[in-house]
Specification:
Length: 239
């Protein structure tokens, strides 16, 4: 009973908490006093114009950038106090998908995913077992042996998502993943992100795609000039 109560209480702590976070570049505040909580299992659309601070916020979560003020907690861990050598272990809990897909050009879909698993220390047996399951999840089981140049933009982005899922993250960050895609492929990528969220992964989608945000109808956080200006629980894109 105690273990069940502890498990229940832990899931009610915010997964991510920003406390008055400040980030500065060249004496200009990219983020200015950000206060934000993200709970386990949420799907959040982080919206704003280019340069508003969306990408900076995501980079702070994965420890790619360091804060200049305030505090960021991930599962109650102050990430500013995590040693640089321990950051890779933190990042294994987090999947990251970029607009610039960054696939290995001379590797197949299977090899792109398996390489990510090798880096995380998975055995060849585990990789052989898991990669086909991941490809099936993203609807690319028939593209296992295809190279990036043989795939559409939407298919390449789904491989990138599959790669991000290869270490079973509890949090998936997607930074403008549909920015270079047409409407059909963008919709397919969005549907995949929603499916991943329904399976239990917390998703933060940074985007300025109005139609996609309005289709999701989940929590929307608006950033303007480095400040959160609006939060909506079941929102729409508003600037």
């Amino acid at each position: 009973m105690l273990a069940r109560l502890l498990a229940y209480s832990l899931t009610n702590f915010p997964m991510i908490k920003f406390e008055n976070v400040i980030k500065t570049y060249n004496n200009q505040r990219a983020l200015d006093g950000i206060n934000l909580q993200v709970h386990h299992g949420e799907f959040i659309s982080l919206v704003g114009l280019s340069g508003a601070g969306k990408s900076t916020l995501l980079k702070l979560i994965i420890g790619e950038e360091q804060i200049d003020g305030g505090k960021i907690l991930i599962d109650e861990i102050d990430i500013s106090k995590v040693k640089k050598g321990d950051l890779p272990y933190l990042r294994r809990k987090i999947g990251m998908v970029f607009q610039d897909i960054k696939l290995l050009p001379k590797a197949t879909a299977f090899e792109n995913i398996s390489f990510a698993m090798e880096v995380c220390g998975h055995s060849k047996e585990k990789i052989k077992e898991e990669v086909p399951k991941i490809l099936e999840l993203v609807g690319l089981e028939k593209k296992s042996n295809s190279f990036p140049h043989e795939m559409s933009g939407g298919e390449k982005q789904r491989v990138a998502i599959a790669r991000a899922l290869s270490h079973r993250p509890v949090l998936l960050l997607a930074d403008e993943p549909t920015g270079n895609l047409d409407e059909v492929n963008a919709s397919e990528v969005l549907d995949l992100l929603l499916k991943i969220n329904q399976l239990g992964t917390t998703v933060i989608l940074a985007t300025h795609a109005v139609d996609l945000v309005n289709k999701i109808k989940k929590r929307v956080i608006t950033i303007e000039d480095g400040k959160i200006t609006m939060e909506q629980e079941q929102g729409r894109y508003r600037l």
